[in-house]
Request: fold
Amino acid sequence: MARDGAIQFAEMTSVEQLSPGLTNEQQPGRYRLRQGDGDRLFDWNHGPQGVKPHCFSPREVLWSEQGEPLRFQPRLPAQAPIALVGVRACDLAALSIQDKHFLHADAPDPHYRQRREQLLLIGVDCAHSAETCFCVSTGDGPALDGGYDIGISELDEGFLLWPGSDKGQTITDRLALQPADDRQLESMLRISTQAAEEQQRSLPQPAELRRLYRRLEHSHWQDVADRCLACGNCTAVCPTCFCYDTGHEMSLDGENAQMVRQWDSCFSAGHSYMAGLLVRANVLQRYRQWLTHKLAGWQEQQGRTGCTGCGRCISWCPVGIDLTQEAAAILREGSVDV
Amino acid sequence: MSDNREIRIKVPVLTRVEGEGALELDLLNGAIENLKLRIFEPPRLFEKFVEGYERDQVIDMVARICGICPVAYQMSAVQAFERLSDFTPGRWVREMRRVMYCGEWLQSHALHIHLLAAPDFLGFESAIAMAADYPDAVRRGLRLQTLGNDLIALFGGRSVHPVGICVGGFYRAPELKAVEAILQRLRAALPEAEALVAWTSALDFPDDEQSFISVALSDPEEYAIDRGNLVSGQGLDTDIRYFESHFKEVQSPHSTAFHSELDGRPYLTGPLARLNLNFHQLPEPVRRAMDGCGIVFPSHNMFHSIVARALELYFALFEAVRLLEHYQAPQRSREEVTPVEGNAFGCTEAPRGILWHRYDVDDRGIVRYARIVPPTSQNQGRIEEDIRLSLEKMGLDREEEEIRLRAEQVIRNYDPCISCATHFLRLKISHR
Amino acid sequence: MNRQKPKLAVHKFSSCDGCQLALLNLGEPLLQLPDLVDIVHFAEAGPCESDAEVDISLVEGSISTPEDVRRIRQVRENSRFLVALGVCATYGGLQALANFNDRDAWMSAIYPQPQRIDILPTSKGVSDYVKVDLQLQGCPVNSAQVLNALRDLLSGMKPSVAIQSVCLECKRNGVACVLVSKGEPCMGPVTLAGCGALCPANGRGCYGCYGPSELVNDASLAHRFEALGLDPQAVTRRFRFIANNAAAFKAAGDRLEGDPHER
Amino acid sequence: MSDLYLPRTAVIDQRTQESPTIFTLRMQFEDDHAQQAFDFSPGQFNMVTLFGVGEIAISIVNDPQDSHFFDHTIRVVGRVSEGMSGLRPGDRVGIRGPFGRGWPLDEARGKDVLLVTGGLGCAPLVSVIRYLMNRRDQFGHITILQGVKHSSDLIWREQYDIWSREHEVKVLLAADVVTREWRGQQGMVTELIGELNLRIGRAIALLCGPELMMMAAIANLRSMGLADNQIWFSMERNMQCGVGQCGHCQIGPKYVCRDGPVFCYSELADFMGTKGF
Ligand SMILES: Cc1cc2nc3c(=O)[nH]c(=O)nc-3n(C[C@H](O)[C@H](O)[C@H](O)COP(=O)(O)OP(=O)(O)OC[C@H]3O[C@@H](n4cnc5c(N)ncnc54)[C@H](O)[C@@H]3O)c2cc1C
Ligand code: SF4
Ligand code: SF4
Ligand code: SF4
Reply:
C-alpha cells in the first residue's frame, strides 16, 4: 500500500486500498511514487522494507524478570497469522537468508520462528525493474523462484496465480481459477525477461567479491567514508541485515525488568564497543565492515552473499552511496591484492 | 499589636511557579514601603535569535521560550505568518489547531491547579505532599494533565516543543485510530473535569474584591482561543495589529522583564480575564457547571482564578470532544503558503493570557525583526498592584509568615510563567 | 538495599522549563518518585533547599550569568552525581546563538537599560564550568531517558546512553526516510537518537534538537542539502539551530558560514 | 521449544576478592538437574545476567570436573561488571551457556604446552591451566608465561607458586613495573618468549590477553618457527547473544562467540592487526 510517499506493508481491508497504476521511481538517495494512468496493481517494485520487520521485529521483549527472588519468564510474541501480498523475489531470497541465520539448527530463535510461522507469502513477479535493482546479477529475481506460498504474475488481462507450497495449494484449490493458456504463460515470461533487461546495475560475482577481504587497505574506502554519514539506513532497509542489540529496562520501582532487543547496525558505536575501546571507531572502518561482511563474509557464513540485489541500500541511502559501484571500484582500481 | 515592626520579607526563589522569580517586600511601620516582584530569568534574547531564520524554523524556535506553553508560541507565530500571506487555513486545520490548543490548556491548567496552586489553599508545601491527604484529587489532576499532554502529542509527537505545526497547516494528520483512542479518553474525563470545577469552587477563598481591567481576545463566533480581537472590559475592541498603539511595555528597574500597561494602567490577562469577558460564550453544559457554587463570572476576586482554570479545563475537554467527534483525516494536512514581505501580527490565548507576536518578514520568508509579548510580563504590573491591595486588605499587622504566604499565593493566582517572561522577575520581602 | 533514600535536587538555570517537565509530566508515576528518592530541591514542584547536599542533581538550563557560574559551582560541590538535562545544560541551548553575535548590541536592542542586567558574553553548557557525570541530550529530554538514568543511579549503576543516529530509531518505527522519499532536508543522519524519531514520524525532517550524534559527517550532508535546493545560508541555519553550540554542529556552522564554496 | 535467550538462575556460593577490581564468584544452578547437566570445556564462556542491568560474556575458570559449581572471575570495567561486584553469597544471577569453542585440548594432548597471558589475570586460560595440571600425565612440558603491567596487578600468586612446583612445569612471571618484593622478571612477556627453549616441533602455544600483546607474541613465536596452526588464542568482542545471531562479535567472517572465542592463528591471520576488525 502507498503510505507516506512509499510502498509499505499495511493492514488492508479492501482491494480498493491498492492504487492502480502506481509506480515507483528509485535512484540513489531518491524514491518517489508516481501515479500512472494504467490499471495494474503491482507495477511498483518495493518500498523501504521487505519481509524483515514481520519476522525479525524492530523492537521486542525477549523475556521479563522479577527481582526478588530472581525469576525469568519467557515472553514469546503472540503473532496472529498475516498474509503479505506483493512480496518480490529479492525479498523472498532475503527471507530465506534470514531463515537460515535465525533458525539454523544450533541456535534457532524462538521469537523469529513464532512470527515466521504465521506468515502467508503472496509473491509477485516484477514487471519492471527500478533503476537501483540488480537482482539479476545476484541471481535472485526478477521472477519468483521459490519461498512463497502463492505466486502471482500480473498480465494486462488479469493475474496468473500458482501455489508455491502446501499452504498455498490449499488456498488456490479453493479458488475458481481458469487454467492459463500458452500465450499467457508466454506473456508472463516476457514480462519478467523485460524486467530483467531493464536492469542497469550489477554486482560482481561472489568469487570476485571474496577478494574484498584482500583489499582492506584500498584508498577507495576513504572515498566512500568521505560521503557516508554512518547513519545506518542501509542496514535498516536491507532485508538481510540481522544485527541487534539487547538491553534491560527496569520498572520505576525496581521490582521488575525486561530484556529488550532492537535492530542495531554496524554503523553505530555500540556495535563494536568493548569496555574502553571502539573496534571500529571511524566511518571508513564501519562502511568497510558492512560491505565486506555483506558481500564476502556471508559467503563463508551462509554459502552465499548477503545481498539479493533489491537495491534498497542504494535508494534509501540519504547520500546515494551505491554498493555496486563501491564494490566494483575497490575491486577494480589498483590491481594489487594484499 | 501596635505595628512598629520593620519586616523584610525575601523569597529568594518563588516555588511552584514556572521559571525563576523572587519577591522582595519591605514593610515599615505597618505600611508597604517597597514591593518588587523580580523576575530574574536571565534574558535569553529570543527576539534576536529568530532574525535570519525561516518561518517554519521560527515556529520551532519560539516554542523554546516556554516548555509549558510551547503550543501557544507556535500558534501565535503561525497565525502571524499566515495572516501576512493572507492565508486562511481550511476548516480541518483550524479545528485541529484549536484541539491541539485545548490540549495545552488542559495540560497547563491541570498542572497549575494541582501542582502549583492548590497546595496553597490546603496548606501544603507541594502537591506531592498534598497527595498523602488528597490522593484522589492529585491523581485526578495528574491524569487530566497527562491527557492534555497526549492530546498535544497527537498532533505534535510530544507535548514539550511539539513538532507538528507548520505554516499552512500540520506536517501530518493524525490517524483515525489514534484519534478514536484519545477521544474515548477525553469523553471519559468529562465527569472528572466537572468534578474538578466543583472541587475548586469549594475551596476556601479570601474575600478580596479588587477593581482591575480584564483584557482578552474575543471572537463573535466562539470562546476565543486562537483568534479574535483584543477586547477589554473598558471598551477596547481592536484588531491585534494595533496592539502596540494601546499597550506599552516598560522595563521595570528591578528585573530583566518588561511589564505592559494599557493606556498607562496595569491590566489582567488570563483565564479570569477571559471568563470575565467571554463567559457567556461557553457551551451551556460548561456554564452550568458553575450553577449553585456561589461564584459568578465576571468576578473580581483574583483567588477565583483557580476556579476559572478548572472551568476552562472543562471547556477545553468539551471542545476537544466536540471537534474530534467526527474526525476524518484530510486529503492534505497543509497548504503551500507563499511568503510575503511585510509586518506579521499574531495573537492567541495562551493558558496564561494573550500572547502577542510581531514579525517583520522578507519576501523569502526570513524573519528580520521580532517582538514577542508574553502574558506574564503583561500581568506583572497587575501582580504587584494585587499583592499590595491584597496585603493591605488582609492587614499588614499579621505575622510575617502569614504575609509571605499570602503574597506568594497572590502571585500564584496568576500562574506566572517566568521562563516565558524572557522579558519578566525574585520576592524579597522586608518589613522595616 | 537498606540504605537511606537518596536525595535528589532539580536545579534550573537559563531554560524554558521543558526538561523539568520530563518529571512533572510523568503523570501518576510522579507520585511514586517520593518512595524512591527524597526530593529536597525542586522549586517548581515545591521543595526548596537549594543549598542542600544531595546524591543526585538534575540540572536544567544553560550558564549565562555570573550568578549562574557561582550557583553551578555550588551545585557541583553539593552533589555526588550531576546530570545535565537537555540541550541547554549540555550545550548552552538555543540561547547560545547569542555567542555568535554581539550580545551587548542585542541587549541594547531589546532593553532600554541593558546595563541593569548582568550577563555573561556567552551562554554555555554546564560542563564548560564544572564536571558533569552524565549528559542527557535533547530539547527537551524525554521522561523515559530521565527515568532510566534515575533508575540506574538508584540501583547504583552508571546510567548508559545509547549512541546512535536518529535514522535507526526512525527505521525501527517503520517510517520511510523523509529525505529520500520527500526531499526534506533531514538532520537525522547526524543527530543523536533518543526522541523516538518524532519529526520523520510526523512527516518532516529532523531539525537536530537532540544535538550531534557520534560521527558527524556534516560536509557530506550539507552537500546533499544543497543538492536538494537549499542555499548555503539555509544549510548553515540547519546546523546553527537548537544545538548550535555543540562542538560538531558549531564547527559545521562555522565552516559553512566561513566559505560556502570551499567544499 | 526451549528459548535460547532465557537465562536460568544460579546462586552465588562464594565470593573472593582477587584484587581491588577483580573478584571471583563461585555459583551453582538453582536447579540441580541443570547443574548436573552443565558440561563445558576450558575456554568456553557463559552469558551472565545481572537483574535489570545487563548480560555479559564471562569465561568459566574452573576445571570441568568440578561438577557441583562453576567459577567466574570478573574484572570491573563498566556498568554490568561493576554491578556484579556487589553480588554476595546467596544472591542470584541469570546464566546462559556454555557457549563457544574452547581450547584445542585434543591437539594439545601429548605436546608441550606454552601458555602466554597478559593483562590482569587472563580468565580464559585459567580453566585450561587447571585442566592441564589435573591431567599432568597427558601433556608434555608446560610453560606458563604471565605478564602484568604492574607487579601488584598479579592475582593468583599462590596458585602460580603451587603450579611452578609441579613436575616439568615452568612459571615465568613478568611485570613492566615492579615493586621490591617482586620475584619475577621485569619486562614484557613478549621479551621472555625469545628466551624460551621451545621444542618447536612438539609445541602448542595458547595465548590470551590484550590484542597488541598477543600480536607481538605471535610474531615472536612465528619467528621462532612455530607454525600458524600451532598458535591458538582467545578473542574478545562485543557480545549481545553469545550464539551467533546478534552480529556484534564478528571478525571478518568469523563469529567470536560461535567459531571462537578460541581461534587458531591460521583462521584469523588476515584480520589480526587490521584496524577495524
Ligand atoms: C568470550 C568472552 C569471555 C570473557 N570473559 C571474561 C571474564 O572471564 N572475565 C571478565 O572480567 N571479562 C570477560 N570478558 C569481558 C566482559 O564481557 C566485559 O568486560 C564486559 O562485557 C564489560 O561489561 P560492562 O557492562 O561492565 O562494561 P561497559 O563498558 O559498561 O560495557 C557495556 C556493554 O558493552 C558490552 N561489552 C563491553 N565490553 C565488552 C567485551 N570486552 N566483550 C564483550 N562485550 C562487551 C557488553 O554488552 C556490556 O554490557 C569476556 C568477553 C568475551 C567476549
Ligand atoms: S545489500 Fe543493499 S541491495 Fe543488497 S539486499 Fe541489502 S539492501 Fe538490498
Ligand atoms: S552507506 Fe548511506 S545509508 Fe549506509 S550508513 Fe552510509 S550514508 Fe547511511
Ligand atoms: S527528529 Fe530530530 S528535531 Fe525531531 S524531535 Fe527528534 S531529534 Fe528533535
Notes: The mean pLDDT of chain D is 87.
